[in-house]
Amino acid sequence: MIGILIGSFFGVIILGGAIFMNVSPQFGGKPTTAQQASFKELSYYDDGKFQNQVPTSMDMSFGETVSTMRDFIKGDPSRQPSHQLPVHKLDSLSIADRSADEARLTWFGHSAFLLELEGKNILLDPMLGESPSPVPFFGSKRYAADIPIDVAKLPHIDAVIISHDHYDHLDYSSIQKLKDKVDAFYTPLGVGAHLAAWGIDEKKIHEMKWGDEATHGGFTFICTPARHFSGRGLFDRFSTLWASWVIKSGSKNLYFSGDSGYGPHFKEIGEKYGPFDIAMMECGQYNERWENIHMFPEQTVQAFLDVQGKLLMPIHWGAFSLALHSWTDPIERASAKAKELNVNMATPRIGETIDLNQTASYTTRWWEQQ
């Protein structure tokens, strides 16, 4: 009888989870059969999965898995700020009233940005929700009590660029609030299926493979490789592509790394598309147990040199705790390495706007408690 009860308990949990995944919109959609057939023509798609350019093992031993779970459950106070973080508030009128020759970049924390360039508004990985999880109650919560500007107050958005479909980069609630004010969405292959499932007009969705280029309003968006993975559910890992992005306009050349472990693709991108006026480089949520898919801060600085950047902006930190390091470890280690290698690095407050036409470094150590 005890065995029957235990089996029934786990059966109910599994059934409930399956039902939730099938009815909850956060999980998104799936590439069509025709799309999957076209993926087979790519050299980096095999056995129904996208592949990295270089071997990238993500396997952990049973012991490593158990120790990782234990470390997450145990917790560590240093993984969260002990004080209220300063958030610079954006004024919607200042965005609307800017001149066409202004070039501005505003960080929303983690990997989300608003780029204002040549009269256009472009959002990068606009995860503007409270928690990067399909079940927010159980997920990591945003450090700051607020974001720089409410989504409802954002102006018309010319384009949204998405690096991959993980919850801390592609957020259902944010897309629902944004979708009626966006002209076009640019994503790696397969990611558009999520947007279509969420009610985005398919004419607005532009899926791209590595090396593809698209033009939009005087800009060129280039989908470039990254070393990572994808998936929003239990069984769809590697089913959509992940990417970094090159953003070119008449006056500026920018690089957005998305999520990536260190690899030869950075140097290849720098040689082909660099140098870059600013490079937004992943720096956070790393661990020696998954070093192939997330860089350590010292690697972030080296990758910046590889892509031939002029100004480094460390990203993927400052908003959520998704790894085991302290919340300031990424920026402290990156700052030390940047100083050692004489790298110009920007550390703006969340919501502080970088003027891309100026040479100021924005080096306030805002994360330190005053």
UniProtKB/TrEMBL annotation:
It holds the Pfam family Lactamase_B_2. Residues 121-317 form the Metallo-beta-lactamase domain. InterPro entries: Metallo-B-lactamas, NAPE-PLD, RibonucZ/Hydroxyglut_hydro. One of its GO terms (molecular function) is zinc ion binding. GO terms for cellular component: cytoplasm. SUPFAM superfamilies: Metallo-hydrolase/oxidoreductase. It comes from the Bacteria. PANTHER family: N-ACYL-PHOSPHATIDYLETHANOLAMINE-HYDROLYZING PHOSPHOLIPASE D. This is Metallo-beta-lactamase domain-containing protein.
